[in-house]
């Protein structure tokens, strides 16, 4: 898979067929949509990005909650494009929401993307017109836009999940969702605050809110394995080193299973080491911070139950050593599911926060919380609060796509095809939906999103080149290829410990009541995903049907 790191160096593309408003319509202006726009425009394809929100950035526009920051290193939470390497100043290892949001807006400025982005506009339907072999995209402003290629870049965590909490309508205080945090911020100083949820979002919110609130009560249904982030500021020297080694850094991220700037492999499994060595290695990973604990200690943490339990127990011991109140420490220890069966959050003094006098933890085991005018009731106890912060997660991966009426050949509805879970070829294509391309969509790798987007966009750009060269009007995968890839995606998950424990996890879809457990993501890592993509393109796209009917002679477009 090779595409120049500076868009504009690749030849322009052109396609025959009926006239369209734009060659490409992209749904969503988050990181994936922005990266797609840079690519398609550089290939000479007229493109419009349609975004429901009032600005670009997707999750980084909406998630303005206190403490929001990336869990990936800032310098790989971006694009490996020369145009935005030398003039961007990464400030911290894990960039804050304002820094990340600022970065994506900066990218839009540098590449002059704004004229091709339509904000405050929601895509309601996209219907494939079989006669003209184009897509008809309808938006909530009553407009229809025709295009040859429909690219969905709707984000993996973009549709908030908000359970129906009984009594909320009568709550006398204020309440907020982290996923729709007010732009002007919320002053929590001196207030009694509740946080509901203990996922990656809540784990970022809790230590910050605890500093301002008079009192903070955390409502926990399931404890998480929280890894210390060990954030730090980046010096000018650090930034120089990043800029000088930018290409190698991204090569490393492309090879690292989860798209991070770290080693692809620890080079050992837990059983290779003595118990003393095991503890030393885990301790080094813990002290190094971030996901190094998972990826640079033992290579079998996700696949071997004994190795996983070793790493899980190490974390429990850390929790017990950090949290002074033994009862609270026990409640914070995950005990009945393996490490990584739920996405481990990165903490910024998370466990330490429970040592504060103004912070309490409420265990929801065996209870549903109900809300009363004065606060939150759990069993016999009413916890009086002024403000409730809900951090209850997302209908991930398929939620947003399911809300759009996407119809392929024969009027088939995409969400009806996916009632048992998504089924794709390489996470990017669907049989029966010609020229529908998904960037960082269902069954794409569970990894650092900008890296996943980069891999998808580069591969789709190559596919478009192949179509141009063949004079193809449409590309569509075979049903057999979709079956095989979807089965493989399931098998990869089955080879891990991730299904064990029966706990809810958004990366199986089981955090949403009634949603079937399915392989909604490729858990085999970025490298193996790229190998599968390269195998398809390298072999001349054996699994993809190119429709070249009514081929018009194509005048070779000049190189740009
Ligand atoms: P989440 O991990 O799904 O956590 C949702 C929390 O809400 C869980 O603790 C869940 O409990 C709880 N919850 C749900 N329904 C509830 C109910 N009816 N009563 C009580 N509690 C309830 O969602 P998230 O924290 O928003 O994180 C989602 C993903 O977003 C993360 O895994 C991560 O990939 C991404 N994220 C990334 C970053 C970053 O990279 N910086 C930051 C934040 C989030 P159960 O566990 O029992 O279901």
From TrEMBL:
<dbReference type="Pfam" id="PF13738">
    <property type="entry name" value="Pyr_redox_3"/>
</dbReference>
<dbReference type="InterPro" id="IPR050775">
    <property type="entry name" value="FAD-binding_Monooxygenases"/>
</dbReference>
<keyword id="KW-0274">FAD</keyword>
<protein>
    <submittedName>
        <fullName>NAD(P)/FAD-dependent oxidoreductase</fullName>
    </submittedName>
</protein>
<keyword id="KW-0285">Flavoprotein</keyword>
<keyword id="KW-0560">Oxidoreductase</keyword>
<keyword id="KW-0521">NADP</keyword>
<dbReference type="InterPro" id="IPR036188">
    <property type="entry name" value="FAD/NAD-bd_sf"/>
</dbReference>
């Amino acid at each position: 898979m090779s595409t120049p790191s500076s868009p504009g160096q690749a030849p322009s593309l052109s396609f025959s067929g009926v006239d369209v408003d734009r060659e490409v319509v992209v749904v969503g202006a988050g990181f994936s949509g922005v990266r797609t726009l840079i690519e398609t425009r550089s290939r000479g394809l007229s493109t419009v990005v349609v975004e429901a929100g009032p600005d670009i950035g997707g999750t980084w526009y909406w998630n303005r909650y206190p403490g929001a920051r990336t869990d990936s290193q800032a310098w790989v939470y971006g694009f490996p494009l020369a145009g935005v390497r030398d003039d961007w100043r990464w400030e911290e290892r894990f960039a804050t929401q304002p820094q990340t949001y600022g970065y994506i807006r900066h990218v839009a400025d540098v590449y002059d993307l704004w004229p091709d982005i339509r904000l405050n506009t929601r895509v309601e339907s996209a219907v494939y017109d079989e006669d003209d072999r184009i897509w008809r995209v309808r938006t909530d402003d009553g407009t229809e836009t025709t295009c040859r290629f429909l690219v969905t870049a709707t984000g993996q965590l973009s549709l908030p999940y908000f359970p129906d909490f009984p009594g909320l309508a009568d709550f006398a205080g204020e309440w907020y969702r982290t996923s729709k945090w007010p732009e002007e911020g919320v002053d929590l100083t001196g207030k009694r605050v509740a946080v509901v949820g203990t996922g990656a979002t809540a784990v970022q919110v809790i230590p910050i809110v605890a500093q301002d609130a008079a009192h903070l009560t955390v409502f926990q249904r399931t404890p998480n394995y929280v890894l210390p982030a060990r954030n730090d500021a980046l010096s000018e020297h650090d930034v120089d080193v990043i800029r000088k080694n930018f290409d190698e850094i991204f090569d490393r991220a492309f090879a690292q299973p989860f798209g991070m700037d770290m080693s692809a492999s620890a080079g050992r499994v837990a059983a290779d080491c003595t118990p003393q060595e095991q503890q030393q290695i885990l301790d080094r990973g813990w002290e190094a911070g971030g996901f190094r604990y998972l990826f640079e200690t033992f290579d079998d943490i996700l696949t071997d139950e004994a190795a996983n339990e070793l790493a899980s127990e190490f974390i429990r011991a850390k929790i017990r050593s950090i949290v002074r109140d033994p009862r609270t420490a026990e409640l914070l220890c995950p005990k009945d599911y393996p490490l990584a069966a739920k996405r481990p959050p990165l903490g910024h003094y998370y466990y330490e926060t429970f040592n504060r006098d103004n912070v309490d933890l409420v265990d929801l085991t065996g209870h549903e919380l109900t809300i009363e005018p004065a606060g939150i009731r759990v069993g016999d106890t009413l916890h009086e609060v002024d403000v409730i912060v809900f951090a209850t997660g997302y209908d991930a991966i398929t939620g947003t796509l399911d809300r759009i009426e996407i119809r392929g050949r024969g009027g088939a509805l995409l969400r009806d095809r996916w009632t048992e879970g998504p089924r794709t070829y390489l996470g990017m294509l669907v049989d029966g939906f010609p020229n529908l391309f998904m960037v960082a969509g269902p069954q794409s790798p569970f990894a650092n999103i900008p890296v996943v987007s980069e891999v998808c966009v580069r591969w789709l750009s190559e596919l478009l080149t192949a179509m141009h060269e063949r004079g193809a009007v449409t590309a569509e995968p075979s049903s057999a290829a979709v079956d095989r890839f979807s089965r493989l995606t399931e098998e990869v998950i089955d080879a891990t410990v991730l299904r064990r424990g029966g706990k809810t996890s958004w990366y199986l879809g089981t955090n949403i009541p009634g949603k079937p457990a399915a392989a909604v993501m490729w858990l085999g890592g970025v490298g193996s995903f790229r190998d599968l993509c390269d195998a398809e393109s390298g072999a001349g796209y054996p699994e993809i049907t190119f429709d070249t009917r009514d081929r018009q002679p194509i005048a070779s477009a000049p190189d740009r």
